[in-house]
Amino acid sequence: MEKILVTGSSGFIGMHLCKSLLEDGYQVVGIDNMNDYYDPALKEARLKELYLYDNFKFVKADISDYPSVETAFKDFEPEKVVNLAAQAGVRYSLENPQAYIQSNVVGFMNILECCRHHQVKGLIYASSSSVYGGNEKIPFSIDDSVDRPISIYAASKISNELMAHTYSHLYGLHTTGLRFFTVYGPWGRPDMAMYIFTEKISNDLPIPVFNYGKMQRDFTYINDIIDGVKASIDKNFFCEIFNLGNNRCEYLMDMIALIEQSLGKKAEMNLMDIQPGDVKKTFA
C-alpha cells in the first residue's frame, strides 16, 4: 500500500481521514502542531485514537517551519500528501490575520516545495467554500469567479489554489483542491455553530444568531468528505478543483430547532447583524 502523509492529522477531518486510510492498510504519517486554537485535549484524544494502529506514525511539527516539514518528508518518503493543516475559522481571521498567512500561505508553500523536491506523486489539499465570497449565483460552481474574497481566511485558500496551479504548470506536480462545505460530525471542532449552540442551550445561556437567523449552509457529513478525499487520492488528478458538499442548503433556524428538539429545551436567541466576513448562503 502507498505511504501517505497527512498534515493536520489531529484535526477534525484529519483524524477521520487518517483512521479510514489506516483501516485500509495504508502507511500513514501524521503531522500536526497541536496548537491551542481550541482545547488541545480534544486534539490529544483524536491522536490517541490513531495511535491504536501499528501503521501510524506521528510528527509534532508546524508546517510553517520548513526544516521540520523537510525532515518529515525525507524520513517518511510519502507517495501522496494530503494537506489539511490550516488555521481555520472565518471570524478568527478578523482578530489574528497573521496566523492565517503563516499557516495557510507560508505553510502551504513549504508543502508544495517538499512535494516538488521529494517526487511526491500527488498532493490533495483542503480549500473551502469560503472562496466564493459573496457570490449570489446559486448553487456555487467551480466555474464561478472567486476573485472577490470577503475574509482573510478565504483569501488564503484562494492563494492555495493559485499556488497549486502554478506548481502543476511549472513542475508537473499533480494537485487536487477540495472546497469543503460546512463539515460536521463526531469529533467536530468546538468552534462550529452547532457545538456552540448545543453547549449554550444545554447550560441555559443565550446563543448568538447572526443576520437575524437568515443564514443557510450546505452542511456536509464527515463520512462524505472522507469519501471525496479518498477518491481524490485514488484518482490523483493532474490539476483540478472540486466542490465537496451536500448539494442542498439548510436554514440556520432549522438547525437550531433540531438542537432544541434533541435537548428538550428552547433556545434563548440573541439576534444580531451579520458579522464581517460571513456569507449568507452556501450551496455546492
TrEMBL record:
Keyword set, alphabetical order: NAD
Domain NAD-dependent epimerase/dehydratase: 4-245
NAD found in the keyword field: yes
Protein name per the record: NAD-dependent epimerase/dehydratase domain-containing protein
Organism of derivation: marine metagenome
A Pfam family annotated for this UniProt entry: Epimerase
InterPro entries from the UniProt entry: Epimerase_deHydtase, NAD(P)-bd_dom_sf
